Model the fold of this input.
Amino acid sequence: MTFKPKNGTLQKQLAASFSLINTSASRPFHQTTCVHISQRLKREKRRMAEEKGVKLLDLWSSPFGQRCRIALAEKEVEYEYKEENLSDKSELLLKSNPIYKKIPVLIHDGKPVCESLIIVQYIDEVWPSKTPILPSDPYARAQARFWADYVDKKVYECGTRLWKLKGEALQEAKEEFILILKTLEAELGDKKYFGGETFGLVDIALVPFTSWFYSYETYAGFSIEQECSKLVSWAKRCKERASVAKTLYEPKKIHEFVGYLRKKYGAE
Amino acid sequence: MSRSNVVLLDHWVSPYAMRVRIALWEKGVEFESRQQDLGNKSELLLRSNPIYKKAPVLLHDDKPLCESLIIVEYIDEVWPSPPLLPSSSYERATARFWADFIDKKFAEAAIKTWRSARSAEELEAARNEFFETLKQLEEFLGEKDYFGGETFGLVDLALIPFWSWFSAYEKFGGFKIESPKLSAWIQRCMERESVAKALPAQEKVLEFVCMLRKIFGFDQ
Done:
């Protein structure tokens, strides 16, 4: 089931889903408190493990969450979608991802899996019979992992600077971002998808960010079509897939969300 | 299996390169290690890793592989015995999560203890971050012999190389690492031939870090 916010509830959704960096510093606990908390967590873990099915803790606009939704859709896996309010994180989220306290988290038969690329690989391994996401050849798999990791390391961080910063810093970020896209485009070459003929890990890793292209272009003042037309064609091909079409939001909706984030971060 | 050509573009002090050496030795794979001069990078390195221009790079039959954890998973798939990753999908995801945590959180915090803190406040923050990540790792280890359970695996291999840097973290971070659980785990790992061979002596690493700090403008 894919969550799509209804028109009119978008503002409410935006307000609820804005996330502050988790600033709760670890405070020293009294030892007895630690033991009680640890026992309670163990009971919760046991209870969670008894639950069957697939649940995804997510945020509608998150490109990382969208990777998981696309993978689940490719594999035709039924799951329960749970929208998280990141300024008031659920106990389930905090319990399932105590290290980072972030979405997405996939909970399969009560057991949580965290970090989007790890979740996608898990989905590929657990439901192998439909549409493989990773190739079978070890070298091709290593290449896929390398480029998915490159997307992780580069696209989000640099893209964020494009809507957050101004002046000199913005110009630098723009140059860097164009270089990142050109590098990815060179790797794509003339292939249909990053993996060749089949839609795979690198496509899944990158395609959610294409909904943010309009915002990046608008705030940084450049055209991705002009700089990387092959990449734009690739994005169009991906959007012809049902899994991608039903998961990604229109760039204008993401742009509204980015506008909200800019106000929050004082970029406007 | 036909004779294959395995070359490691290596660096003796890099914990990331140590991971690859450990993996290859665990699998009993013969390889040629070529020490890289990272101040004067070879054409082979630049050609093999044009994106990051870093070591380690594994060349298997001349095909380059980059990024240590990706290299280690490749090694595990090509030479499956003994396995470095568990067979259950959930446990594999857990192993990948913690190996990634070591990269994202532990290694970042560790670097700060000797490289980026320029004031007492920054050093204090670096120390706290380092201990926090170490505590989280310790909790995950729990009562197990290894991070993966009963056998040495991906997470152990991802973390143990940093042990050779502990003297440097302690000296420049101004702290002492005391953890009986981790000490027992370190000893267990160091008893493995692959690990003992791969890790340089702490004194040598400390010497190297002292030199680097001078270059970065500390300890003038």
About this structure: Chain B touches chain A at residues 51, 60, 63, 65-67, 70-71, 73-74, 77-78, 89-90, 92-93, 96-97, 100-101, 132, 136 (CB under 8 Å). DSSP finds ten helices and four strands in chain B. The mean pLDDT of chain B is 94.
